[in-house]
What we know:
single chain, alpha/beta, 16% strand, 10 helices, Rossmann fold, 29% helix, globular
Amino acid sequence: MRKLINKLLIKFGLLITKAPTLLADKSLGVSESIPAELTEKVKVSAATETPDNELFRIFSKDTNVHKWHHYFDIYERHFGRYRDRPIRMLEIGVFRGGSLRMWKEYFHPDSTIVGIDIDKSCAAHELADQNVFVRIGSQADPNFLAEVNGEFGPFDIILDDGSHKTHHQIISFGALFRDALKDGGCYMVEDCHTNYWIKHVDSPETFIEVSKQMVDMLHEPYFDRKETHFRHGHPDALTEMEQSYLSANLNGIYFHDSIVVFDKKLRSLPKSELR
């Protein structure tokens, strides 16, 4: 019962919990399986170069955008494939509106860019004549997110650059991945370094920890099975199986510094072949 109550409190943003020990004492447990030479401390120097790509050049023209420099190569890697056609993008977090304008210039001119924010003043950054829209509401409100999806979605790209609170990141992903993200779409959560900052951790598990669990869910087809269950032409080969929606529609998870990316694609059963 306590777990159920906690889930409901988290859903509505009412539960504030103590930060995990890892965050509180700045320690990091390391598996004994990792060789000592890989955990040895080495010096890392400050960055001396700026990203060399088109998106960074667009970013550099606007004074109302805040982004970490190392994000731009990650954006190019995951978003570049969407540039040759009109898309629909949802960005959680509007701030001063510069990011919405950046995406509008970066993607196909006929793309629709939607930003959401809890700050009512962000509505001033809407450019409806350019298909840039802003809606006011909380990323932790599934009903509001469903309304935005009903008006503009489903989306090719969803980017969470919102409050960076862990329970917000978790709730938004749970509310949007299934119904608001297209097959073939990309869901990106940035600024995940905040999962290691005490003031942002307000859920029993951080988004990073939940994402690690989703790595296991990605491999759900193999649970309690063997290779011959997937081998082409083998008598034991399975023709179908039941698995979670997430496993059946998650094509890949990518961990970068401060960013986690989820590619959505309806999957078939894995297939093995012995020649």
